[in-house]
Amino acid sequence: MASASEIRYLNPPTAEVKKKKYCRFKKSGIKYIDYKDPNFLLKFVNEQGKLLPRRLTGTSLKYQRKVAQAVKRSRHLALMPYVADLMK
User: Fold this and answer.
1) Can you give the pTM of this predicted structure?
2) How far apart are CA 44 and CA 52, in angstroms?
3) Are 55 and 18 within 8 A, CB to CB?
4) 15-35 pLDDT, tens per residue?
């Protein structure tokens, strides 16, 4: 059998480098999330109108709660739809 030192590759194996997630609110210093701005809130909602989770957006827990509250308020005032087919 070949040992690990005898195995050679045509191209060296590369490791996938993941991009570090960051909270865009902390980075830009946003303190208040305006529920009256549906264009901004659409970035945190998928095509069906569901909120995107923190693991996808990189938003911190504090701001994810504020985003969720702002989306709910915007939906209540009919600025954003509750359910939509292909909103974006």
Assistant:
1) 0.74
2) 5
3) no
4) 677 778 889 999 999 999 999
Distance CA 42, CA 47 (A): 9
Count CB neighbours of 64 within 10 A.
Answer: 19
Residue 17 CB-density burial (10 A; 0-12 exposed, 13-18 middle, 19+ buried): exposed
- Are the CB atoms for 59 and 26 separated by under 8 Å? no
Round to whole Å and give the CA distance between 64 and 53: 8
Output the DSSP codes for 38-77: HHHHGGGB-TTSPBPPHHHH---HHHHHHHHHHHHHHHHT
CA–CA distance, 35 with 74 (Å, rounded to integer): 5
Cα(first)–Cα(last) distance of the chain, in Å? 56
